[in-house]
Design a protein that fits this description.
This protein is of the alpha+beta class. It folds into two domains: 10-26 and 111-187, Orthogonal Bundle (Topoisomerase I, Chain A, domain 4); 35-105, Gyrase A, domain 2, CATH 3.30.1360.40. The chain has helices at residues 10-29, 79-87, 111-148, 154-187; strands at 45-48, 51-54, 59-65, 68-73, 96-98, 101-105. The strands form two sheets. It has a four-stranded antiparallel sheet, covered by helices on one side. Helix 1 (10-29) runs antiparallel to helix 3 and helix 3 runs antiparallel to helix 4 (154-187). The longest helix has 38 residues, at 111-148.
Amino acid sequence: MSTDEFMLDTDDLTRRMEGALAALRTEFASLRTGRASGSILEPIHVDAYGQSTPINQLGTVNVPEPRMVTINVWDKAMVGKVEKAIRESGLGINPQLNGTIIMLPIPELNEERRRELTKVAGQYAEHARVAIRNLRRDGMDQIKKAKAKNLVSEDDQKFWEDEVQSMTDRHIKLIDQSLEAKQVEIMQV
């Protein structure tokens, strides 16, 4: 059997790693540094109708003033679940109910709150690193399976493994740089 039949789909692996980075950037966008923004709710999902649902699919999200986000929940039965999801999200925002409207006053960021947000940013970055490492494992598994089927030579196996590791290192470095930039942004007064 010829050893040049195996070709790792590095484009797919890169696209999936870029997807993990894009998800991280979305989560970082939700960490606002003082001003209210509807995007702070994007990472929060609610167990609604038997599935995990983003808040913006359960109600209208508005920013009526610089330090307030409101959610007008469409289904009265979901108000409690949405409120609970916000309380448990780690955003550090205390929701206030007014009928089907949930008001989220955005607190002034003190030093302690900024430090909390940098920790949350660190957790988001760690989740992204785990996603990248899982993709690395998938790539390495594909290479090992190809080697087991004699579709790839020892030299090619080493080449592909180095390639996957290089992609992983590059994306982990981008995550670390994004985290550092976000933490600097959060700590600026």
